[in-house]
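To assess whether ligand presence alters the predicted conformation, the chain was also submitted together with adenosine-5'-triphosphate. Input:
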Amino acid sequence: MKERLPGYLLSLLQGVGETADRQRVSVYVVGGIVRDLLLDAPNPEGRSGTRFEVDLIVESDGIRFAKALAQRDKARVAIHERFGTATVAFADGHTFDVATARTESYDSPAVLPTVRPSSLREDLCRRDFTINALAIRLNASRFGEVVDCHDGRRDLQDKTIRVLHGLSFIDDPTRVFRAIRYEQRLGFQLDRNTAVLMTEAVKMGLVHRLSPSRLSAELLHVLSEREPVNILARLADFNLLQFIHPRLKWSPGLARLLNAAEKAVEWYARLSLGRLTSPWVVYGMALLDHLPQPAVQETLARLTFPRRQAQTLLWVAQEGARLLRTLDRTDKPSDTFRTLRNLPDETLIFLMAKTRSERAKQNISDQFTTYRRVRPVLRGNDLKAMGLEPGPLFNRILDWLLDARLDGTVETEADERRMVRRMVRSPG
Ligand code: ATP
């Protein structure tokens, strides 16, 4: 851990161990961070950028422990009474989720289980795959000790995704999606028996029993991965696209569009515009692009995607093709700018991926790299100094100036001033 974790995280975890000793409880770090630490991944960084997602399990009252931890480190604590969990947020932005070790029993397939407190071992037994059923002890005297009751380390070494027992997908069919996500993200393989169980779970219609919100959450996880296209292709191998919509089928056209979407998202990141806020929306647009309108509407009405993004997805499905025809005919920068200026970046990136028109592609690219940065030299205050009253004409003049800048009909401040004087004389 000392080699693999940044110093500040290591000392936070050591602090957790000390608090645990003082409280006389056993505390472990579990979940993805343990898997990534034990993997030969260069840096087990949380996927949400530089923040680490740390899950702690306490063999005792997790909420009481979280409060003690927060007090010691002057951190904030949010209690989720209903789930018996708490989130401790440290000043530097890192958050630790703290839970009481618990066991689950499934009363019926595909619905959420009943839980009761238990030991760490039992808690690890309710996990999805062996590589996620590993824990590291944090108490000072045994700091760094790995708990591995399901041969997770062997599977990490063999690059294998394996369920803990034969009923795993019946208990929770979202694990079918999770298995494929880890397989592709980590470059692992599904254990043969696990793959058979997945195929059976799909055939038995278990995925159909998932509530729309659980299915949507899984789909969002898939679309939010850094490289979602291979994951979607694998979902298709397992006949899982039907759960997005029965008419959604994998095809060379869909593969082309998704790959183009992935490239366009990367292009955006390279532009040093920062990351897209919601790259998943671009992939969502690509998936829906191959469905007829009524099917798009049905899909968006059923899935519980965040509202604003769902509206964007619907708008693009309805208007995207028309917009691209316009962009294919446009050669005036100011026209492109006005066509695109109020659209989210995700929409532009998707349109760029979708179009086969070089001109449309160039127009979108210019919007990002050039048009958006263009400003007239003259500002509102300059117009006031020229004797103009702020009002509708004032804004129209600023708009005209911007158009003229974009289209290259003015180049200098003197050009702009001449243009303003001409407009004031004949404002129509
Ligand atoms: P990442 O965040 O890198 O995708 P993670 O393993 O931390 O990986 P989470 O979804 O945050 O993923 O889950 C944390 C842990 O909770 C997992 O490692 C796993 O042990 C357990 N877990 C999550 N979802 C399930 C599930 N559906 N069934 C069983 N265990 C699960």
